[in-house]
Design goal:
It comes from Microvirga lupini. This protein has about 400 residues and is of the alpha/beta class. It contains 10 helices and 15 strands. α3 packs across α4.
Amino acid sequence: MRFSLVLLAMLMPAPVSAEERAITIAVVTQERDPVQPVSPLDREVKDQGLAGARLGTADNATTGRFIRQRFTLVDRVIPKDGNPAETIRVLAAEGIRFVVADLDAPALRAAASSEQARGMLFINVQTPDDALRNEACRANVLHTIPSRTMLADALAQYLMAKRWRRWFLVTGSQPGDKLLADAYRRAAKRFGAEIVAEKEWTFKPGHARTDTGHVTLQSEIPALTQVVDHDVLVVADEANEFGDFLPGRTARPRPVAGTQGLVTTAWSPVSEQWGATQLQARFEKLAGRRMGVVDYAAWAAVRSIGEAAIRSRSDDPFAIMSYLRSPDFVLAGFKGQGQSFRPWDGQMRQPILIAGPRLLVSVSPQAGYLHRGSELDTLGIDREESRCKF
Protein backbone atom coordinates (compact mmCIF):
# COMPACT_ATOMS: atom_id res chain seq x y z
CA MET A 1 0.00 0.00 0.00
CA ARG A 2 2.79 2.40 0.93
CA PHE A 3 4.51 1.71 -2.42
CA SER A 4 1.27 2.44 -4.26
CA LEU A 5 0.88 5.80 -2.54
CA VAL A 6 4.48 6.75 -3.37
CA LEU A 7 3.95 5.78 -6.99
CA LEU A 8 0.71 7.77 -7.12
CA ALA A 9 2.48 10.83 -5.70
CA MET A 10 5.21 10.53 -8.32
CA LEU A 11 2.66 10.42 -11.12
CA MET A 12 0.64 13.39 -9.88
CA PRO A 13 1.46 16.74 -11.55
CA ALA A 14 3.43 19.22 -9.48
CA PRO A 15 1.29 21.90 -7.83
CA VAL A 16 1.20 25.23 -9.61
CA SER A 17 0.62 28.67 -8.27
CA ALA A 18 -2.92 29.97 -8.57
CA GLU A 19 -1.44 33.30 -9.56
CA GLU A 20 -0.73 33.70 -13.26
CA ARG A 21 2.83 34.67 -14.15
CA ALA A 22 3.08 37.20 -16.96
CA ILE A 23 6.28 37.35 -19.01
CA THR A 24 6.67 40.17 -21.51
CA ILE A 25 9.37 39.97 -24.16
CA ALA A 26 10.40 43.01 -26.21
CA VAL A 27 11.75 42.77 -29.74
CA VAL A 28 14.04 45.78 -30.18
CA THR A 29 15.16 46.90 -33.64
CA GLN A 30 16.68 50.07 -35.07
CA GLU A 31 15.70 51.97 -38.19
CA ARG A 32 17.98 51.14 -41.12
CA ASP A 33 18.61 52.69 -44.49
CA PRO A 34 16.82 50.74 -47.24
CA VAL A 35 19.09 48.38 -49.15
CA GLN A 36 18.62 47.86 -52.86
CA PRO A 37 18.41 44.09 -53.49
CA VAL A 38 20.75 42.42 -55.94
CA SER A 39 17.96 40.38 -57.53
CA PRO A 40 14.57 41.70 -58.72
CA LEU A 41 13.07 38.60 -57.09
CA ASP A 42 14.01 39.87 -53.63
CA ARG A 43 11.40 41.84 -51.72
CA GLU A 44 11.79 44.13 -48.74
CA VAL A 45 10.86 42.39 -45.49
CA LYS A 46 9.43 44.80 -42.94
CA ASP A 47 8.83 42.32 -40.12
CA GLN A 48 12.18 40.53 -40.19
CA GLY A 49 12.78 38.90 -36.83
CA LEU A 50 9.50 40.16 -35.40
CA ALA A 51 7.53 37.50 -37.28
CA GLY A 52 9.77 34.76 -35.88
CA ALA A 53 9.32 36.16 -32.38
CA ARG A 54 5.55 36.13 -32.86
CA LEU A 55 5.64 32.47 -33.80
CA GLY A 56 7.80 31.70 -30.77
CA THR A 57 5.32 33.52 -28.54
CA ALA A 58 2.45 31.46 -29.94
CA ASP A 59 4.44 28.27 -29.30
CA ASN A 60 5.19 29.36 -25.72
CA ALA A 61 1.50 30.06 -25.09
CA THR A 62 0.57 26.51 -26.07
CA THR A 63 2.55 25.05 -23.16
CA GLY A 64 2.51 28.01 -20.79
CA ARG A 65 -1.24 28.07 -20.31
CA PHE A 66 -1.15 24.69 -18.58
CA ILE A 67 0.99 26.09 -15.75
CA ARG A 68 -0.56 29.56 -15.75
CA GLN A 69 2.26 31.37 -17.50
CA ARG A 70 1.24 34.04 -20.00
CA PHE A 71 3.66 35.30 -22.66
CA THR A 72 3.28 38.71 -24.29
CA LEU A 73 5.33 40.25 -27.09
CA VAL A 74 5.94 43.95 -27.72
CA ASP A 75 8.16 45.60 -30.31
CA ARG A 76 10.18 48.79 -30.07
CA VAL A 77 12.02 50.58 -32.87
CA ILE A 78 15.00 52.80 -32.06
CA PRO A 79 15.26 55.80 -34.42
CA LYS A 80 18.21 55.71 -36.80
CA ASP A 81 20.03 58.34 -34.75
CA GLY A 82 18.45 57.28 -31.46
CA ASN A 83 20.09 56.13 -28.25
CA PRO A 84 19.65 52.39 -27.54
CA ALA A 85 20.21 52.99 -23.83
CA GLU A 86 17.17 55.30 -23.73
CA THR A 87 14.96 52.59 -25.23
CA ILE A 88 16.21 50.15 -22.61
CA ARG A 89 15.51 52.70 -19.87
CA VAL A 90 11.88 52.95 -21.03
CA LEU A 91 11.51 49.16 -21.20
CA ALA A 92 12.93 48.79 -17.70
CA ALA A 93 10.47 51.41 -16.41
CA GLU A 94 7.67 49.33 -17.93
CA GLY A 95 8.89 46.28 -16.04
CA ILE A 96 10.12 44.44 -19.15
CA ARG A 97 13.17 42.29 -18.44
CA PHE A 98 13.57 40.18 -21.59
CA VAL A 99 14.87 41.66 -24.86
CA VAL A 100 15.22 40.00 -28.26
CA ALA A 101 17.86 42.29 -29.78
CA ASP A 102 17.69 42.67 -33.57
CA LEU A 103 20.53 45.20 -33.43
CA ASP A 104 23.96 45.65 -34.95
CA ALA A 105 27.02 45.22 -32.75
CA PRO A 106 27.47 48.86 -31.59
CA ALA A 107 23.78 49.25 -30.75
CA LEU A 108 23.70 45.94 -28.88
CA ARG A 109 26.74 46.92 -26.82
CA ALA A 110 25.18 50.27 -25.95
CA ALA A 111 21.88 48.65 -24.98
CA ALA A 112 23.26 45.77 -22.92
CA SER A 113 25.82 47.89 -21.07
CA SER A 114 23.41 50.61 -19.98
CA GLU A 115 22.69 51.01 -16.28
CA GLN A 116 19.08 49.81 -16.57
CA ALA A 117 20.18 46.66 -18.44
CA ARG A 118 21.75 45.06 -15.38
CA GLY A 119 18.56 43.23 -14.43
CA MET A 120 17.63 42.30 -17.99
CA LEU A 121 18.35 39.40 -20.33
CA PHE A 122 19.26 40.17 -23.95
CA ILE A 123 19.32 37.60 -26.73
CA ASN A 124 21.17 38.69 -29.87
CA VAL A 125 19.44 37.60 -33.08
CA GLN A 126 21.25 39.72 -35.67
CA THR A 127 24.98 40.31 -35.35
CA PRO A 128 27.53 37.50 -35.93
CA ASP A 129 30.34 39.62 -34.46
CA ASP A 130 32.84 37.30 -32.74
CA ALA A 131 33.99 40.06 -30.39
CA LEU A 132 30.59 39.97 -28.68
CA ARG A 133 31.33 36.34 -27.80
CA ASN A 134 34.90 37.10 -26.73
CA GLU A 135 36.49 40.20 -25.23
CA ALA A 136 33.25 42.23 -25.50
CA CYS A 137 30.97 39.54 -24.04
CA ARG A 138 28.49 40.34 -21.30
CA ALA A 139 26.86 38.08 -18.74
CA ASN A 140 23.39 39.39 -19.62
CA VAL A 141 23.69 38.63 -23.35
CA LEU A 142 23.06 35.32 -25.12
CA HIS A 143 23.24 34.66 -28.86
CA THR A 144 20.94 32.53 -31.02
CA ILE A 145 22.44 33.84 -34.27
CA PRO A 146 25.65 31.94 -35.16
CA SER A 147 28.98 33.73 -35.00
CA ARG A 148 31.14 34.27 -38.07
CA THR A 149 33.56 31.69 -36.72
CA MET A 150 30.81 29.08 -36.50
CA LEU A 151 29.73 29.72 -40.10
CA ALA A 152 33.33 29.59 -41.35
CA ASP A 153 34.08 26.37 -39.45
CA ALA A 154 30.91 24.76 -40.80
CA LEU A 155 31.93 25.59 -44.36
CA ALA A 156 35.51 24.43 -43.83
CA GLN A 157 34.37 21.06 -42.49
CA TYR A 158 32.16 20.50 -45.52
CA LEU A 159 34.79 21.61 -48.05
CA MET A 160 37.36 19.33 -46.43
CA ALA A 161 34.87 16.45 -46.51
CA LYS A 162 34.61 17.10 -50.27
CA ARG A 163 38.43 17.31 -50.47
CA TRP A 164 38.18 20.86 -51.78
CA ARG A 165 41.30 21.98 -49.97
CA ARG A 166 42.53 24.79 -52.22
CA TRP A 167 40.49 27.96 -51.72
CA PHE A 168 40.34 31.21 -53.66
CA LEU A 169 39.00 33.87 -51.26
CA VAL A 170 37.12 36.90 -52.64
CA THR A 171 36.25 39.57 -50.07
CA GLY A 172 33.97 42.60 -50.17
CA SER A 173 34.85 46.06 -48.95
CA GLN A 174 32.49 46.25 -45.95
CA PRO A 175 33.83 45.82 -42.39
CA GLY A 176 31.75 42.67 -41.88
CA ASP A 177 33.22 41.18 -45.04
CA LYS A 178 36.73 41.71 -43.68
CA LEU A 179 35.85 40.05 -40.38
CA LEU A 180 34.27 37.09 -42.15
CA ALA A 181 37.37 36.73 -44.32
CA ASP A 182 39.42 36.56 -41.11
CA ALA A 183 37.12 33.78 -39.90
CA TYR A 184 37.64 31.89 -43.18
CA ARG A 185 41.42 32.21 -42.81
CA ARG A 186 41.22 30.87 -39.28
CA ALA A 187 39.00 27.98 -40.40
CA ALA A 188 41.33 27.10 -43.27
CA LYS A 189 44.27 26.87 -40.88
CA ARG A 190 42.25 24.97 -38.28
CA PHE A 191 40.96 22.28 -40.64
CA GLY A 192 43.88 21.94 -43.03
CA ALA A 193 42.78 23.90 -46.10
CA GLU A 194 44.98 26.30 -48.06
CA ILE A 195 43.99 29.74 -49.32
CA VAL A 196 45.94 29.85 -52.58
CA ALA A 197 44.76 33.29 -53.73
CA GLU A 198 42.86 36.30 -52.40
CA LYS A 199 41.17 39.21 -54.17
CA GLU A 200 39.01 42.14 -53.06
CA TRP A 201 35.86 42.96 -55.00
CA THR A 202 36.00 46.57 -56.24
CA PHE A 203 33.37 46.63 -59.00
CA LYS A 204 30.45 48.97 -58.22
CA PRO A 205 27.30 46.86 -57.78
CA GLY A 206 24.99 49.54 -59.20
CA HIS A 207 26.69 49.21 -62.59
CA ALA A 208 25.12 45.78 -63.02
CA ARG A 209 21.68 47.39 -63.41
CA THR A 210 22.54 49.26 -66.60
CA ASP A 211 21.40 47.84 -69.92
CA THR A 212 24.89 46.51 -70.56
CA GLY A 213 25.57 45.52 -66.96
CA HIS A 214 25.63 41.80 -67.70
CA VAL A 215 28.16 42.39 -70.47
CA THR A 216 30.43 44.33 -68.13
CA LEU A 217 30.18 41.64 -65.44
CA GLN A 218 30.92 38.98 -68.03
CA SER A 219 34.28 40.63 -68.70
CA GLU A 220 35.09 41.96 -65.21
CA ILE A 221 34.54 38.74 -63.25
CA PRO A 222 36.73 36.46 -65.41
CA ALA A 223 39.51 39.04 -65.11
CA LEU A 224 39.10 39.19 -61.33
CA THR A 225 39.02 35.41 -60.95
CA GLN A 226 41.94 34.63 -63.26
CA VAL A 227 44.21 33.26 -60.52
CA VAL A 228 46.12 30.07 -59.76
CA ASP A 229 44.13 26.86 -59.88
CA HIS A 230 41.81 26.22 -56.94
CA ASP A 231 39.06 23.83 -55.92
CA VAL A 232 36.46 26.34 -54.76
CA LEU A 233 35.87 30.08 -54.69
CA VAL A 234 34.99 31.18 -51.14
CA VAL A 235 33.16 34.50 -51.01
CA ALA A 236 32.86 36.88 -48.04
CA ASP A 237 30.01 39.25 -48.92
CA GLU A 238 27.81 39.77 -45.87
CA ALA A 239 26.27 42.90 -47.38
CA ASN A 240 25.07 40.82 -50.35
CA GLU A 241 26.52 43.33 -52.81
CA PHE A 242 28.24 41.09 -55.36
CA GLY A 243 28.40 37.42 -54.39
CA ASP A 244 25.40 36.43 -56.50
CA PHE A 245 27.17 37.78 -59.59
CA LEU A 246 29.95 35.17 -59.31
CA PRO A 247 28.38 31.76 -60.12
CA GLY A 248 28.55 31.06 -63.84
CA ARG A 249 30.93 33.93 -64.58
CA THR A 250 34.27 32.84 -63.06
CA ALA A 251 37.36 32.22 -65.17
CA ARG A 252 37.46 28.58 -64.13
CA PRO A 253 34.40 26.33 -63.72
CA ARG A 254 34.58 26.13 -59.94
CA PRO A 255 31.87 26.06 -57.24
CA VAL A 256 31.15 29.22 -55.25
CA ALA A 257 30.58 28.89 -51.51
CA GLY A 258 30.32 31.08 -48.43
CA THR A 259 27.83 33.92 -48.25
CA GLN A 260 26.48 33.13 -51.73
CA GLY A 261 26.29 30.01 -53.86
CA LEU A 262 26.62 27.15 -51.42
CA VAL A 263 25.83 29.02 -48.19
CA THR A 264 26.33 28.29 -44.51
CA THR A 265 23.36 29.44 -42.49
CA ALA A 266 21.40 28.90 -39.30
CA TRP A 267 18.20 28.46 -41.31
CA SER A 268 17.02 28.15 -44.88
CA PRO A 269 13.59 27.88 -46.52
CA VAL A 270 14.86 24.71 -48.24
CA SER A 271 15.22 22.81 -44.95
CA GLU A 272 12.53 20.15 -44.56
CA GLN A 273 14.05 17.44 -42.37
CA TRP A 274 13.63 16.85 -38.60
CA GLY A 275 10.17 18.42 -38.57
CA ALA A 276 11.38 21.62 -40.26
CA THR A 277 8.53 21.41 -42.78
CA GLN A 278 6.06 21.86 -39.93
CA LEU A 279 7.90 24.93 -38.61
CA GLN A 280 8.16 26.38 -42.13
CA ALA A 281 4.43 25.88 -42.73
CA ARG A 282 3.41 27.50 -39.45
CA PHE A 283 5.65 30.47 -40.14
CA GLU A 284 4.33 30.94 -43.68
CA LYS A 285 0.76 30.84 -42.37
CA LEU A 286 1.59 33.52 -39.79
CA ALA A 287 3.82 35.81 -41.86
CA GLY A 288 2.78 35.15 -45.45
CA ARG A 289 6.39 34.59 -46.48
CA ARG A 290 9.29 32.21 -45.93
CA MET A 291 11.30 32.09 -42.74
CA GLY A 292 14.66 33.84 -42.83
CA VAL A 293 17.75 33.55 -40.66
CA VAL A 294 16.86 36.41 -38.29
CA ASP A 295 13.30 35.07 -38.04
CA TYR A 296 14.67 31.71 -36.96
CA ALA A 297 17.07 33.29 -34.46
CA ALA A 298 14.22 35.36 -32.99
CA TRP A 299 11.96 32.30 -32.81
CA ALA A 300 14.73 30.38 -31.02
CA ALA A 301 15.29 33.30 -28.63
CA VAL A 302 11.63 33.56 -27.62
CA ARG A 303 11.26 29.80 -27.40
CA SER A 304 14.38 29.59 -25.23
CA ILE A 305 12.99 32.14 -22.79
CA GLY A 306 9.66 30.33 -22.78
CA GLU A 307 11.17 26.90 -22.32
CA ALA A 308 13.35 28.09 -19.44
CA ALA A 309 10.44 29.90 -17.80
CA ILE A 310 8.21 26.84 -18.10
CA ARG A 311 10.85 24.40 -16.87
CA SER A 312 11.97 26.58 -13.98
CA ARG A 313 8.41 27.78 -13.29
CA SER A 314 9.78 31.26 -12.80
CA ASP A 315 9.49 34.69 -14.37
CA ASP A 316 12.68 36.00 -12.77
CA PRO A 317 15.29 36.94 -15.42
CA PHE A 318 18.20 35.76 -13.26
CA ALA A 319 16.57 32.36 -12.64
CA ILE A 320 15.76 32.02 -16.33
CA MET A 321 19.27 33.08 -17.36
CA SER A 322 20.77 30.58 -14.95
CA TYR A 323 18.60 27.80 -16.36
CA LEU A 324 19.47 28.74 -19.95
CA ARG A 325 23.18 28.41 -19.18
CA SER A 326 22.75 25.12 -17.34
CA PRO A 327 23.21 21.60 -18.79
CA ASP A 328 19.48 21.02 -18.24
CA PHE A 329 18.40 23.40 -21.00
CA VAL A 330 17.90 21.95 -24.47
CA LEU A 331 15.87 23.48 -27.30
CA ALA A 332 14.40 21.34 -30.06
CA GLY A 333 15.41 23.51 -32.99
CA PHE A 334 14.24 21.38 -35.95
CA LYS A 335 17.82 20.72 -37.09
CA GLY A 336 18.40 17.18 -35.85
CA GLN A 337 20.21 17.91 -32.58
CA GLY A 338 19.24 19.60 -29.34
CA GLN A 339 20.48 23.18 -29.08
CA SER A 340 21.89 24.73 -25.91
CA PHE A 341 23.92 27.73 -24.78
CA ARG A 342 27.65 27.53 -24.20
CA PRO A 343 28.32 28.57 -20.61
CA TRP A 344 31.63 30.23 -21.49
CA ASP A 345 30.32 32.80 -23.99
CA GLY A 346 26.52 32.57 -24.21
CA GLN A 347 26.49 31.33 -27.82
CA MET A 348 23.81 28.83 -28.78
CA ARG A 349 25.49 25.68 -30.06
CA GLN A 350 23.57 24.44 -33.08
CA PRO A 351 23.95 22.60 -36.38
CA ILE A 352 24.76 24.82 -39.38
CA LEU A 353 22.98 24.14 -42.66
CA ILE A 354 24.89 23.94 -45.94
CA ALA A 355 22.27 25.02 -48.45
CA GLY A 356 21.97 25.59 -52.15
CA PRO A 357 19.40 27.90 -53.75
CA ARG A 358 16.73 25.19 -53.89
CA LEU A 359 17.80 22.23 -51.76
CA LEU A 360 19.64 21.38 -48.56
CA VAL A 361 23.11 20.02 -49.40
CA SER A 362 24.53 19.04 -46.00
CA VAL A 363 24.67 19.91 -42.31
CA SER A 364 27.74 20.60 -40.19
CA PRO A 365 29.37 19.40 -38.01
CA GLN A 366 30.46 16.79 -40.53
CA ALA A 367 31.01 13.16 -39.63
CA GLY A 368 34.41 12.47 -38.11
CA TYR A 369 34.87 15.79 -36.31
CA LEU A 370 34.81 14.72 -32.68
CA HIS A 371 34.73 16.66 -29.42
CA ARG A 372 35.06 15.53 -25.83
CA GLY A 373 31.84 17.36 -24.96
CA SER A 374 29.48 18.12 -27.84
CA GLU A 375 30.34 17.72 -31.52
CA LEU A 376 28.53 21.03 -32.01
CA ASP A 377 31.47 22.63 -30.20
CA THR A 378 33.70 21.85 -33.19
CA LEU A 379 31.97 24.90 -34.71
CA GLY A 380 33.10 28.24 -33.33
CA ILE A 381 35.16 29.28 -30.33
CA ASP A 382 35.77 26.45 -27.87
CA ARG A 383 36.15 26.95 -24.13
CA GLU A 384 39.98 26.92 -24.19
CA GLU A 385 40.08 29.54 -26.97
CA SER A 386 37.51 31.87 -25.44
CA ARG A 387 38.56 35.32 -24.26
CA CYS A 388 35.18 35.95 -22.67
CA LYS A 389 35.33 36.95 -19.00
CA PHE A 390 31.95 37.50 -17.39
